[in-house]
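Researcher: Structure prediction, please.
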Amino acid sequence: MDIITTTEGLQFLLRWFHFLAGITWIGILYYFNFVQTPFFGTELGGTARSAMVRGLVPNALWWFRWGAMFTFLTGWTIVLWKLHQGIGLGDAYMTKILTGGILGTFMWANVWFVIWPAQQVVIKSAEQVAGGGSAIPEAAARGAKAGNASRTNTLFSIPMLFFMGSASHLNSLHNGTNDVVYWVIALALIVAFEVNALMGTGQARQKYLTTVSGTIHGGLGLALLLYVIGAVVN
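Model: Predicted structure follows.
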């Protein structure tokens, strides 16, 4: 019964729930971006799109957004617990965890405040058309914006997972005292990617988000940049 009667056991359960929710969330995120969206671009996918948007997508989005919510809540509970245990903000472990946590928080916000509201419009439009009505005029634009946010989440997931994993393994990273400099540069980079995703669609600066390979390369590039900044500055 140690798993529910000791601090160590409760921390394990919290981390376990965090993993379960995160796998659910990121798994569906990757399905949307690596499987469903490319399929919709094919001839067969175009034919099946309306039925899938009305039938499959709403169910997938339920697991997607609540996976995001529980990942967010359990993740920040873990951070607060670590702070309560005396692990300070200047600790190398905390710097790495917070780097991943901030990326994850932007991802969570994109899900709840960009992707989900936009997809509700897209789904309603598809239902109206299937019922013999007219499409909602702004549905296409809202869908494109949701797509940008979703691909940016895919991009963010790569450095997010890197820094979450590095907290317990890359002990040589972030052992310096230049946390403020690191955070100024790191946050500027992260915010720049987020703003780029939200400021309109179809822009030349968003070209890397139009393909799976471009999105993955962008994520690997951001992970490398944040790692190098951490290694050099801090």
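Model: Residues 43-84 form the longest helix (42 residues).
Researcher: Thanks, that helps.
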